[in-house]
Amino acid sequence: MLQKIMVLALLIIITTTLFAQHHFTVEVSDLVTDKGSVYLGLYNKKDGFLKENTAFANAKVKTTGNKISYTFKNLPLGDYAVAVYQDVNNNGKCDRNMIGYPTEGFGFSKNYRPKLSAPTFDDVKIAIIQSTKASISLIGN
Predict the structure, then answer these.
(1) Under 8 Å CB-to-CB from 22, ≥6 apart: which residues?
(2) pLDDT 10s digit of each residue in the chain, 141 long?
(3) Domain residues of the chain, as ranges?
(4) Closest CA to 84 of 111, 116, 44, 66
(5) How many CB atoms are located within 10 Å of the residue 16 CB?
(6) 21-137 carries CATH number 2.60.40.1120
């Protein structure tokens, strides 16, 4: 009888883990008020981090006010990193100056502030367990 209860308990734990819904809510602040849209890129691996067309998921949120919130839903358990920028002029890209530094507001998970180069995946990754939240204050706005 005890073995059956243990097996049943183990099956419940495995099923709950496999089918758990993991959500990642990203709050972005310090936006240029009511201008353009915020683009969010969600990455789940080191390879291709911050490279074009390699994000695990993307989102675009119209800017209303000076902050937005977006939730990536039903994610597999794991580590994720977020990169965001505000496309103030609505041209569909993060504008940059002659040396490649963004001229529109941008940011990363863990509110990472780059010094001489962009962060690595490990610099900004966050473990997603059930419902997780991250706050990012844009740089350069």
Answers:
(1) 74, 75, 76, 77, 128, 129, 130, 131, 132
(2) 656 555 444 444 444 445 568 999 999 999 999 999 999 999 999 999 999 899 999 999 999 999 999 999 999 999 999 999 999 999 999 999 998 889 999 999 999 999 888 999 999 999 998 889 999 999 987
(3) 21-137
(4) 111
(5) 9
(6) yes
